[in-house]
Structures are given as structure tokens and as C-alpha cells.
Amino acid sequence: MMNSSLTPKVLASAASGVIPLIEANHGDPDLIFGRSGIQSKDLENPTNELDLGRFCHLFTEASRQTGNDNFGLHFGSGFEPRRLGAIGYAAISSPTLAAGLRNMETHFPAHQEQSSFGLIRDDDMLWLSYRINDPQIKDRRHDAELSMGMFLNIFRHALGPDWCPLEIRFEHARPENHHEHEELFGAPVQFGRRTNALAFRPVDLDTRMPAADPYLYSIVEAFLQSRCELHENPETFSESVRNQIKLNLSTTIPTVAEIAQLFGLSDHEFQHELNAHRLSFKSLLRSAREELSLHYLDNHDLPLTEVAMLLGYSELSAFSRAFRNWTGMSPQRYRQSHRPSPKPHTV
Q1: Is the pLDDT of residue 147 over 80?
Q2: Mean local confidence (pLDDT), 305-318
């Protein structure tokens, strides 16, 4: 079992195929693995646990040693969902893309610790958001790019190889060879954002998975559930509830009953889980609204009145009061202080 009291882990299946790619780029796998602190034999069993920080460093070192600045991007773009192991099979064996993403979100802590994976509703589109939460892991650019490439291929598994997202965002700074990112994703790519995210249309969720397999899903679900221990980890349970609130929060506020239903629980059972973890739905709603507000305010083209509406506030003044309580400043001041700096003029 993964133990979040120790350094965060990721299953070795996430690195499946990295040695052939290193060799194809004329790199030295032994040297790269040695410098990253991972043994190549650790990849032989996809359920082995790797130190997440070392996993990230493995791809940074591979990029450095091969001279391929977009090594992580190339690795993720060629990664088939089934190679991701149990979490990948949980997605592609689900009946629809919506079910696949929901199952990934539920069981993601079983695949990778101290990381966020979830859906966020943003007006007429949805964002699949991902980031490593451990502040000690700084070396994360290639992990972000390979992860978004992996997630893209899950969408393309359902929607076809020519499907493209509406937009891609990365939290790291723009790399030198950034034009290749737009070519591989087939969409505009922004850097230096709050999180890593993929935008798509809600209608895409209704697409049926071409290889849906209830029996296979029942097997991998049991494996993932045994690792995830969702109801024994307050932090994981809290994050899962917040993600579902964010997904369902728009002009109307989701009720306790609606969120409980998403977890397959009755109102009473869901409230019991909240009480057992010393959580309140009101505090989780507030936390979800605060996080979403920062996400929306990053979009300077989105009027504040619309931000308020998307967070379930009927009036801008009510949102402004709440935001001031969260951050100590008004939404207008926050947006002004976080406005992107103009690019220097070059001849």
C-alpha cells in the first residue's frame, strides 16, 4: 500500500517504455537511471512504486543527456493508455469517456500520490486539471508534459486519433522549442499558468469507449480500490468531494444529495463520511469556490459578473465580499495584481 506519510510514490507503469525512447534518442539508460536514483529493474513490474521526485528527475535527466529538450512531451504523446497500467485500463474499459475520467479521478491516488487530477467546469467548456502538489518536487516540467500527452491519448482512444482539445495549459515557463507543443496537441498552448490543464467540450463526455469491458473494469477497480483506501484518507476524500463540487458548480450550487449520489451514497451515508473525517460540506464548498475563483480570475477576458455567476453567486457584491474574506483583497485588485506583464518590444 502507498503511504502518504513517506515521500510520494507513483506506480512504475507510468514509466513503461522510457528505456526504448532513451535508446532511440541515442542516450545511455544506465547513466540516466543512475543519476536519477532509480534502478531500471524497478520498471519490470508495473505495480512497483517509484519515488515521485526521482521519477520526475528521470525524465529531466533523460532530456539533458539525450539533448532532446521535449523528451517528456514525446514520451507522453506516444504513450498508449493501456501501458499506464490499472488506472489506464480503468479509463478505457469504462462505458463512456465521462465514466472513464470519473473512474480515473476516483482512483488516481492509487496510481500517484500527493497529486491533483480532476475536472473543472468553465462556462461552456470543461478542464481536465493535473498537478503535483508536493512543494518539494520542483523538477516537474517533463512530468507535466508527458502526463498531459497521456491524458490526451485517453481522449483520442474514445474520440479518434484526429481529435484535438480546445486549449492546453502548463504551469511551467515556456520552453525554447514550444512550437512543437501546439503541433502535437493540435491546440493553442499557454505556459506559466496556475495548473496543467486540457480544455474540451462537455458533449465529448457522452462518447462511448470503443473497448468497454465491464469484467475487466471490475478486476482493475478492485485492485485500485484496495490501494486507494479512499475512506481511510481524509485528505484524499476531501479532495475528491471538492473536485465533484467544482465540476458541478455553476449558476446553481450543488446540493449535498447531488454530491452524495455521485459517490454512490445516500444522503445519510455521505454525511456520515463527512462527519467521520471531521469535514463539513459548507467548508468544502467554500474551498471549491475559492479555488475556482482564482482559476476564473486568471482569464482576464471573463467579466467579474460572469465569474460571480459561475460560482453560484446571484450578485457581484456577494462574490466580492466572499473573495475579500478569502484573500484580503477585492477581485478587481487581485486581477490587477496578477495581470501578465507585457512582452518586451523586440525589433
Answers
A1: yes
A2: 92
Q: Mention every residue, 6+ apart, whose C-beta is less than 8 A from residue 64.
A: none
pLDDT at site 77: 96
Asked whether residue 275 falls in the same domain as residue 319, the answer is yes
Is 290 buried (19+), middle (13-18) or exposed (0-12) by CB count in 10 A? middle
Give the ranges where 192-338 is alpha helix by DSSP (H): 214-228, 234-248, 256-262, 267-276, 281-297, 304-310, 316-327, 331-337
**Rounded CA Rg of the chain:** 20
Number of domains in the chain: 2
Place of cell 471490475: 218
SS3 state at 119: strand
Report pLDDT for 236. 67
Clarify whether residues 197 and 54 are in a common domain: yes
Q: Which helix (H) or strand (E) holds 10?
A: strand 9-11
Residue 145 lies in a domain: yes
For residue 78, being part of any structural domain is answered with yes
The pLDDT confidence band at residue 181, using thresholds 50, 70 and 90, is: very high
10: its cell numbers: 507513483
